[in-house]
Design brief:
The chain is 54% helix and 4% strand.
């Protein structure tokens, strides 16, 4: 389900295994949490297997990308992530909101239908000839009939 984090020339990437979220979904998730995760990973980087020759080159490669994400928070977002817990939250991210949204959308839909129903013109009765009244050629011509 969870992809692994990789660093490439394009930045942080999430190559998705077959049973995982799609790559765009992972990228969107990371973009919502980039500042908080970058700060967290930077603080944990030095503590992770210090002195391990297999890990040190990867740490040196990862550090500039994470530091750039932290710098971008000030340069691009003007501190917004920092003021909001390091992540972006959308209305749909909270499960309890769904309990409110469904009835609200239902009520709004009914209100819109009621407003549209008020605009429908009233049905008027058509003046039909009385039963047994003689038909005229003019009336038949309008109906496309021939006598």
């Amino acid at each position: 389900m969870f992809a692994t984090l990789t660093i490439s020339d394009a930045g942080i990437d999430f190559p998705a295994p077959p049973d995982s979220l799609s790559q765009p979904a992972w990228k969107n998730w990371f973009n919502k949490h980039q500042f908080g995760l970058s700060e967290k990973w930077l603080s944990e980087l030095d503590k992770f297997r210090p002195g391990d020759p297999a890990v040190e080159p990867v740490k040196r490669e990862v550090r500039p990308t994470l530091e750039q994400a932290v710098r971008d928070e000030q340069r691009v977002w003007h501190g917004w992530y920092g003021r909001h817990g390091g992540e972006v939250r959308f209305l749909g991210d909270h499960e309890s909101v769904h309990l409110l949204l469904i009835p609200m959308f239902g009520a709004a839909s009914l209100w819109i239908l009621a407003m549209l129903a008020r605009r429908v013109p009233a049905v008027t009765k058509l003046a039909l000839p009385a039963r047994g009244a003689p038909r005229t050629r003019k009336a038949d011509a309008r109906r496309g009939r021939r006598s």
